[in-house]
Every structure is written in structure tokens, then in C-alpha cells.
Amino acid sequence: MFLKKANLFLVLFLFNIYFNPTVFAKPLGDIYILSDELTVKKIKKDIYIINHRFPWPANSMLVRCSDKDFVWVDTPYNNEATKQVLDWVESIFGNVRIVEINTGFHNDNLGGNGFLKQKGIDIYGSHLTKRLLTEQADKTRQQLLKWLEKPQLKKYYHAHATAKYTEPNQLYKLKDGLQLNFDGKKVEVFYPGASHTLDNVVVYFPDKKLLFAGCLVKSINNTKLGYIVDANMKQWPVSLKKILAKFSQAQIVVPGHGAVGGIELIKHTLSLF
Prior knowledge:
Blueprint: H1 2-19, E1 27-28, E2 31-35, E3 38-44, E4 47-53, E5 57-64, E6 69-73, H2 79-93, E7 97-101, H3 107-110, H4 113-118, E8 122-126, H5 127-135, H6 137-147, H7 154-162, E9 170-172, E10 178-182, E11 185-190, E12 202-205, E13 210-214, H8 236-246, E14 252-255, H9 264-271
Parallel strand pairs: 6-7, 7-8, 8-9, 13-14
Antiparallel strand pairs: 1-2, 2-3, 3-4, 4-5, 5-6, 10-11, 11-12, 12-13
């Protein structure tokens, strides 16, 4: 009888592992490994950087603004990874309210919107992001697929080729920006002008002196500006200077790709021009 119970327990345990990989999201220091392509790193109290390699590493961010409120800035590349992150959030923090902010129309900004929409989560994005997603996303996808034609990247090619993009469902005007408030803690979405794309915005958390600058800003190790097909190269440095002036008090700056830094990331990106 004992052996039968032990075997049943082992089967149930293995079943839970296989079908719920989030159970294995054990912390390695302040890093939670959700899969070989997806990690969540706690960089400071209530601030979590999500890194999704699909196949190139890209950052999104979760910020706990109150006991029950999280702001999620950008998403992983696809719905599957976005679900894994939400499962992890619920396993650690329980039933919480989440608001999503898309900082642009590229798929590393909103590839997980479809899953978030299914969950009834508010997804904030500008009218221009919605329009560019309709008008430009397929052209950008075709460029991406050219980089994924190598046989060893077949998995990623198929995933990106068949991905369906979902627009934000809470729209605002870029020139007005967006202000959110959670128990007195403000979140500001600011549009400095065209840059990496025509619609890229930044998100600032004043109480944490935290700026999610996204693809507008490069990490300190980047020596090039990266993908510039959708960029306004003349306006981009002007937009950087606006951010530098407006958010000079920022102590943590999160780029769209690469390591987190401080205000020096904005200055570094300016130097690349």
C-alpha cells in the first residue's frame, strides 16, 4: 500500500512539473528561471526585469505599485512566454491586478498582447501605435524573418512568421501622454518625439526614480543603434535630449535590450550619433 501511494505521488509530481513548468521557477539569487529562454530578475524592491530571448534578448518590466497593483511595461515576444510570466506572478503574489503599457508597435513591445487581452487585462497604447501596427507591422516582420532564415533558427522563424499581433485596447493621444495613479503612486507615460520608431514612449515611476526607456535607449555595451529601418534618425537625438532634461533625477534606466544602468545610458546613446 505504501509503495502504491508513493508511486501515485511520484506520478502526480512529475505530471505537475511537466504541465506546469512555473513550479520549477526557483530563484537563483534574485533571478527566476522560467525556461531556457525566459528569466525574471529582481533588480530592486518591487522592480522585476523580464528577459525573453526569442532569439535575441529583449526586456520588459514588472513594477509592484501597491499590494494588489502591478504595472507591466511591454511584453515578451509571444503569448506563450507572457503566460509563463503571469503564471509566475500569480504563484508568487497571488491574485493581483495588472495594467500593461506598450511603448511601441514592434513585437518585442506587444507580442504578448493577445494573451493579456484574453485575461481581460487593460493594455495601454497610443493611437499611433495602433495605426502603425496595422500599417507597418507586416513589413517589419518580413525584415525580421530575413534574419531568421538560418536552419538553426527554424523554430523562431516559424513562431514569428505565424504570430498574430493584438493592438492595445486602452488608447491615448501621444501628445497628451498618460498619467496613471495607484494608491498615490504615479506612473507617467511620456512621448519625447520620434526616435527608434515614430511612436516609442518612455515610462517613468517617480517614487522609484525608475525610467523604462525601452528601445529608445541602448545599453552601455552597445556600439551601434541597432535596427533603424523604422527610425527617425534626425529626431531621435532631439528626443533623447528631452528625456535627459525631463528625467534627470532617474537613478535606474531600463533599455529595450541589454543591461540596466543609470542616466549614463541616455548619454551613451546620444554619443552613438
